[in-house]
Amino acid sequence: MPGKRIAVIGAGISGLGAIKICLEEGLEPICFEGSNDIGGLWRYEEKTESGRPTVYKSTICNTSKEMTAYSDYPFPDHFPNYLHNSKIIEYLQMYAKHFHLLKHIQFLSKVCSVRKRSDFSCTGQWDVVVQTEGKQESYVFDGIMVCSGLYTDPLLPLQDFPGITSFKGQCIHSWEYKSPEKFQGKKIVVIGIGNSGVDVASELSHMAAQVFLSTRRGAWIWNRVWDYGMPIDTVLFTRFNAILNKVYPTFLINSLIEKKLNARFNHDTYGLLPQHRFLSHQATFSDDLPNHIITGRVMIKPNVRKFTKTSAIFEDGTEEDVDVVVFATGYTFSFPFLENNSTVLDSQCSMFKFVFPPQLEKPTLAFIGILQPVGAIMPVSELQSRWAARVFKGLNKLPSVSGMMADIEKKRKKFAKEYRNNSRDTRRVQYVDYMDEIASEIGVKPNLFSFFLWDPKLALEIFFGPCTPYQYRLQGPGKWAGARRTILTQRERIIKPLKTRTLTLVQPLNSVPFWLKSFCAALLLFVLTLVIIKA
Ligand SMILES: Cc1cc2nc3c(=O)[nH]c(=O)nc-3n(C[C@H](O)[C@H](O)[C@H](O)COP(=O)(O)OP(=O)(O)OC[C@H]3O[C@@H](n4cnc5c(N)ncnc54)[C@H](O)[C@@H]3O)c2cc1C
Ligand SMILES: *[C@@H]1O[C@H](CO)[C@@H](O)[C@H](O)[C@H]1NC(C)=O
Ligand SMILES: *[C@@H]1O[C@H](CO)[C@@H](O)[C@H](O)[C@H]1NC(C)=O
Ligand SMILES: *[C@@H]1O[C@H](CO)[C@@H](O)[C@H](O)[C@H]1NC(C)=O
Ligand SMILES: *[C@@H]1O[C@H](CO)[C@@H](O)[C@H](O)[C@H]1NC(C)=O
C-alpha cells in the first residue's frame, strides 16, 4: 500500500521538520512554499514582501542552540550558543540536505485553498489548490500539515494613536526594519516593549540622536547570558525546575525571579517596572537594554497620548520631537486558504493541544508551530509533527469531540487564571510541560524511573540538566540511537564555542610559590607589629 499523501504548507522551521517526520513515518509529503527558498522567517532579505515573515539583519536567536535543535540533529559543536539568523539558515540547509528534504519541496508555490472533498467523512481527503507561477493546480491529499507560521501580518494599531495620520515623519513597523544605518542622527520613538521593540531600540541607539522606548505597561527584562555565563534556557528549563514550578506557590516563584532580575538592574529605577508579576506575562529578552538606558541613549517613556506633525506627546504630558516612529506592536496571523478561517482564528484555544481542530469528522488536518512556547519552537513543532503523523496513520487516536472540547475548556480556564487577558498569551505554553504532554500522547516521554535504575548517569542529566529535545528520542517510536550520547555530551557542546582560548598553564592558578607566601606572611606580621606599636 502506498503511503498517505500529505501536504505540508510552508518550508520554515516547522515545515522542514514536518517533511522529515513524514518521511520517517513512511508518509509521502509534498511541501508547498510560497517563496523561493527554505527557512521562512529566518531567511534575511533586504526587501520585505507582504505576507512574508522576516528578521532584521542582526537578529539573533533568543533560545540557545542545544535547546533549539531538532531532536535527532544537534547543532555542530563549534556553533555559538546563540545563533545569528544566517547560522540558523546554515543549520536548516544542513538538515534539509542530510535528510534529503529538498526534493519534496515545491518552491514559488502558494497554497490558495484547502477544502474537504465531498466524501470527506469517509476518506478524510482534501482538495488543495496551489498557485505556481500564475498557474493554478489541484491536488488531492490524505492529510494536511499547516506550517505557515505566526508572524506574517504586521499589526498596526494606528487607531490607538490619535494624530498619527498628520505626523510628517517616517512611520514603520518593526517588520520592515532591517538595519540602523539610514537612521543616523534621527530622533526615534519605538512603540512596544516586546522582544522586537527592545532589540530594535537597542540597535538604533548606536546610530540615532535619541531613542525613546514607549511602553504602556512595562516589562520584566531577562537576559540570554545567565549565571556563570550559561545560556538562560539551559539553566532554567530543566525537569527539576518544572517540578519546583508545580510545588512552589506562584507568588514565591515570582518574588524569587523578580528579586533576581532587580538585582541586575532595578526595574523601578529604570522606568520599566510592570504592573504584572513575572509569570503572568511574557518577559522580554535583552542583554543590553540597561546599558543603553544608563548611557541615556534609550529613554523609557509611557504610552504616546497623541502625535503632532513633528512630535509625540506622552501620557505623562512630556513632548518630544521625533523624526521616526517604529511600531513594534506585534503580528497577527491567518489561514486565508482555509474555509472557516475565522472560527479557527477566534482564539487558538479552540484547537486540541494547539494541533487538531476538534470538530472535523476525520483528524486529517494538523496545525504545526501555531503556538508560543516559552522556549524554542523547533523541537516543539517537530514533536507536534510526530504526533500528527501518527494520528494520520491511525496509530494514535484522538479523544471524542466532547473529550477534546473538555480539554480545551480546561486549558482555557487555566490560561484565564494564570495569564493576563492577552490574546497572544492564550497560545503560550511552558516548554517542558507541553513537550511532555505531547510526548505522552505518542509514548516518547523518557521514563525517568527506569533510567534511574538502569542508567543513573543519563537519568541525572535528564532530570537536572537542560531538557534538551534529544530526550524525546530515547525510547518509543522514532527512537534514535544517538540520543543518549548526544545528551551526555551537550555540556561539551555548550562550552566548546566559548572556550576558544585554552589555557596551557602547567601549574594550577592558586599555587603561589612557597617563598612568596612566606615573604608575604613576614611582611604582614611586620606591618601589624608596626601598627600595634604605634597604637
Ligand atoms: C523577530 C523574531 C524572532 C524570533 N526569535 C525566535 C527564537 O529565537 N527562537 C525561537 O524558537 N523562535 C523565535 N521566533 C518565533 C518564530 O516564529 C520561529 O522561530 C519560527 O520562525 C517559526 O517557524 P515556522 O516554520 O513555524 O514559520 P515561518 O518561519 O513563518 O515559515 C512559514 C513559511 O510558510 C510559508 N507560507 C505561508 N503561507 C503559505 C501558503 N499559503 N502557501 C505556501 N507557503 C506559505 C512562508 O513563505 C514561510 O516560508 C521569533 C520570531 C520573530 C518574529
Ligand atoms: C476566509 O475564507 C473565505 C473563503 O472561505 C474568504 O473569502 C475570506 O477572505 C477569508 N477570510 C480571511 C480573513 O482570510
Ligand atoms: C467548517 O464549519 C462547518 C460548520 O461549523 C463544519 O461542518 C466544517 O467541518 C468546518 N470545516 C473545517 C475545515 O473546519
Ligand atoms: C523570542 O523572540 C520571539 C520574537 O519576538 C518571541 O515570540 C519568543 O517568545 C521569544 N522566545 C522566548 C523564549 O521568550
Ligand atoms: C478577558 O477576556 C474575556 C473574554 O475574552 C472578557 O470577557 C473579559 O472582559 C476580559 N477581562 C479583562 C480584565 O480584560
UniProtKB/TrEMBL annotation:
UniProt xrefs under InterPro entries: FAD/NAD-bd_sf, Flavin_mOase, Flavin_mOase-like, Flavin_mOase_1, FMO-like
Entry GO terms, CC: endoplasmic reticulum membrane
Cofactor: FAD
Reaction(s) this enzyme catalyzes, per UniProt: hypotaurine + NADH + O2 + H(+) = taurine + NAD(+) + H2O; hypotaurine + NADPH + O2 + H(+) = taurine + NADP(+) + H2O; trimethylamine + NADPH + O2 = trimethylamine N-oxide + NADP(+) + H2O; N,N-dimethylaniline + NADPH + O2 + H(+) = N,N-dimethylaniline N-oxide + NADP(+) + H2O
E.C. no: 1.-.-.-
Keywords tagged on the record: Endoplasmic reticulum, FAD, Flavoprotein, Membrane, Monooxygenase, NADP, Oxidoreductase, Transmembrane, Transmembrane helix
Cross-referenced Gene3D superfamilies: FAD/NAD(P)-binding domain
Top-tier EC class: oxidoreductase
Subcellular location: Endoplasmic reticulum membrane
Membrane topology: Single-pass membrane protein
Chief place of localization: endoplasmic reticulum
Superkingdom assignment: Eukaryota
A molecular function GO annotation: hypotaurine monooxygenase activity
SUPFAM superfamilies: FAD/NAD(P)-binding domain
Transmembrane segments: 514-533
Family: Belongs to the FMO family.
Job description of the protein: Broad spectrum monooxygenase that catalyzes the oxygenation of a wide variety of nitrogen- and sulfur-containing compounds including xenobiotics. Catalyzes the S-oxygenation of hypotaurine to produce taurine, an organic osmolyte involved in cell volume regulation as well as a variety of cytoprotective and developmental processes.
Protein known as: Flavin-containing monooxygenase
Organism of provenance: Sus scrofa
Organism placement in taxonomy: Eukaryota, Metazoa, Chordata, Craniata, Vertebrata
